[in-house]
Amino acid sequence: MKRKIIMCFxxxxxxxxxxxxxxxxxxxxxxxxxxxxxxxxxxxxxxxxGIINISAWDEDYVDVRALKRTREDRDELDLVxxxxxxxxxxEIKTVVQKRTEDEDSFFSRIFGKIYYKTPKVTVDYTIKLPxxxxxxxxxxxxxxxxxxxxxxxxYVKxxxxxxTVENxxxxxNAKSTNGRISITGGALTKNARTTNGSIEASLSDNFIDxxxxxTTNGSIxxxxxxxxxxxxxxxxxxxKISAGGFRMLVETISKREFVGTxxxxxxxxxxxxxxxxxxxxxx
Length: 283
Description:
Number of strands: 25
Shape: globular
Structural class: mainly beta
Strand content: over 45%
């Protein structure tokens, strides 16, 4: 009898768990608008929780799509809005209204305060820009950022997420804390920095003087033209350095430090990591 009761309780628990999981379907809401802008209009995108995907296209208008999602009640979506300002610059941003606890809750009765909770909502952006506009900035806190084919000197930043930049026209400053960074396809790297993640960057012959690439826990792979002229400084603490068969004038060389000159030298490239290897590769 006791065994049957236990089995009945276990089956009931599993059924309740299954039904509760089945009920946790995402509530969604889509935002979609287009904007006509002048050539050389500057664009800034600011998000909090979610992905940002930005790419250039042949059309003469900006297309903004944002998908809001939550596993809470649908009312949670109303606390997060998409704002687009079209004044001097085109500003696309996520605005969050924090939810207040019931004023008659246990905490408010004891402490006399109202507690605020951030809505559990993610917003994923897909944005298409005319080739004539300038991407100034794209930032989020929790989410990946992908930028393809855009124009302009751009600052790209996330805290928890990867950064991918390809085929852009302009200098790229990229920063993450927990995530990988990849800047390839002719994009010009000015600075790339992360704490926990690897970095991959291709540097063309017209790279910027003072290019700096650094991580703490991760490897660094640099792809360079065989004919590049640069002063190189590479350092690691726990890892190896590979010069990839480049012909150069060497000042300092060891497993963990390399200082030398590629070609006739001139503009400087520095790459540093603590836990990881650094490699130079020919494009």
